[in-house]
Design goal:
By secondary structure, this protein is of the alpha+beta class. The protein has one domain. The chain contains 13 helices and nine strands.
Length: 313
């Protein structure tokens, strides 16, 4: 089991982590990766077709004109997944780490092109904070699928059941060419767990990142853009968080918003107050750092829990 997880960041983010004693969980839907949270869907079609071939149910008079039964299933699935991805209203808050302490690709991509820092967090302390009340999930990202996740198999089964039910109740034009029906199909299927599980799977092209993710547990905390009562998460009238209990303890500032690249995005700052002396094991200075010497990396653990600002020289 991994003992230390590294978070690459620029100097400003590093200072905020030290000053505020928080780790930021950002809205992953604002990621630059257009496949973020969607990677498992690339395996759904294969599983749907595998299950259908085991138990076929489409008759020749129930297929789309000009298509056979397999291509009919493929076509419907393509429409469904497109709508799921396009109309996904769910929010997922994530903080990313790496097993690699000093990797060039990480410096370039996540630490201001090597001018930032890599903070080594004690993984056991993160697990301790996360596991209480099942608030967060800390899991290693997978870059290959040796065994198909249960969520994919369940989704495929539900999808085929919904199609089978539909052809017994509606005529062909209602099923295949009516947008309202496709929306009903979208709402019938439980995509939430599949999308959340997909957060822990990425394209093998990213394997060298050796990534771990800390994710707000959506099984316990239901968030969506359209129906969430935002006053519960942040009281604008009182200018303070309305969260209570352990949730309010670890997210004392509640839901916050920031602007970046002409976009407004939300985030949650996870407090690690009380764990200052245990949480950070070591700090690496970026290879292009102008104001920090890499020879002083080992000194940082001693001052960080006692001072608010590092001795930049």
């Amino acid at each position: 089991m991994t003992d230390v997880l590294y978070h690459y960041c620029n100097v400003e983010t590093f200072l905020n982590i030290i000053r505020n004693k928080t780790i930021r969980l950002s809205d992953i839907t604002k990621s630059n990766d257009n496949m973020e949270g969607k990677w498992l869907f690339t395996f759904v079609e294969e599983e749907v077709l595998r299950q259908y071939k085991e138990n076929p149910f489409l008759m020749s008079n129930k297929v789309i004109y000009g298509l056979d039964e397999i291509d009919t299933i493929k076509y419907l699935l393509k429409l469904t997944i497109e709508k799921i991805i396009k109309q996904n209203e769910m929010l997922f808050y994530v903080s990313c780490f790496s097993e690699a302490a000093d990797k060039l690709s990480q410096w370039r991509g996540y630490a201001d092109d090597g001018k930032g820092l890599s903070i080594g967090f004690n993984a056991e302390i993160i697990r301790k904070i996360a596991s209480k009340e099942n608030l967060l999930k800390l899991k290693k990202v997978k870059y290959s699928i040796e065994a198909l996740p249960e969520q994919v198999s369940q989704y495929a089964q539900s999808y085929l059941e919904s199609i089978n039910l539909a052809i017994s109740k509606y005529n062909m034009s209602e099923i295949y060419f009516n947008d309202d029906y496709m929306m009903n199909l979208f709402h019938y299927l439980d995509t939430k767990l599949l999308i959340q599980e997909s957060l822990f799977y990425k394209n093998p092209a990213f394997e060298e990142e050796e990534e771990w993710r800390l994710v707000l547990n959506e099984e316990e905390n239901d968030l969506d853009k359209s129906s969430t009562d935002w006053d519960y998460w942040y009281s604008t009238a009182d200018n303070k968080s309305a969260l209570t209990g352990y949730f309010g303890e670890v997210f004392p500032d509640g839901l916050q918003f920031r602007s970046s690249n002409s976009t407004i995005s939300s985030y949650l700052d996870l407090s690690f107050k009380g764990f200052e002396s245990e949480l950070i094991n070591n700090i690496y200075i970026g290879p292009k750092s102008k104001g920090l010497s890499r020879r002083k990396e080992k000194r940082y653990k001693s001052w960080y829990s006692h001072r608010q600002v590092p001795p930049v020289q």
